[in-house]
């Protein structure tokens, strides 16, 4: 397995609409890392979209259809994720 870059193109943060997840999004995006911010509540996701380097992803990790849609959205974005 090839070594992963310490400087990823993009990252996915789940649970990004509150608490530790939200703070992680804030810190990573402030460092210039592109963040796909996953969460369930659209109103909260809309607020994250206003941040630099952040794209919201509607994602409930307990629903396979949400996971598939999130993967498709991220792949369409062309930024890639470590390990993909």
Describe this structure in words.
The chain has one domain. 40% of the residues lie in helices and 18% in strands. Helix 2 links the parallel strand 2 and strand 3. It is globular. The mean pLDDT is 88.
Quick recap of the structure?
The chain is of the alpha/beta class and 84 residues long.
Which keywords apply here?
84 residues; 3-stranded parallel sheet; alpha/beta
Topology:
Blueprint: E1 10-13, H1 19-30, E2 34-39, H2 42-49, E3 54-58, H3 64-77
Parallel strand pairs: 1-2, 2-3
Organism: Parahalioglobus pacificus
Keywords: Oxidoreductase
GO molecular function: oxidoreductase activity
**Class based on secondary structure composition and strand pairing:** alpha/beta
- Mean pLDDT over the residues: 88
Measured by DSSP, the beta-strand proportion falls in: 15-25%
Q: If strands are numbered along the chain, what order do they take across the biggest sheet? A: 1-2-3
Intertermini distance? 12 Å
- The domain count comes to 1
Task: Spell the H/E element sequence.
Answer: EHEHEH
User: Rg from C-alpha positions?
Assistant: 12 Å
Which spans have pLDDT < 50 for at least 5 consecutive residues?
none
Main sheet makeup? 3 strands, parallel
How many helices does DSSP assign?
A: 3
Number of strands: 3
Tertiary shape: globular
Helix content: 40-55%
């Amino acid at each position: 397995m090839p070594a992963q870059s310490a400087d990823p193109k993009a990252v996915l943060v789940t649970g990004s609409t509150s608490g530790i997840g939200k703070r992680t999004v804030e810190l990573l995006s402030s460092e210039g890392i592109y963040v796909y911010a996953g969460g369930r509540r659209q109103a909260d996701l809309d607020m994250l979209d206003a941040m630099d380097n952040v794209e919201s992803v509607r994602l409930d990790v307990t629903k396979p259809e949400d996971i598939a849609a999130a993967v498709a959205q991220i792949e369409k974005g062309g930024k890639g994720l470590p390990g993909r």
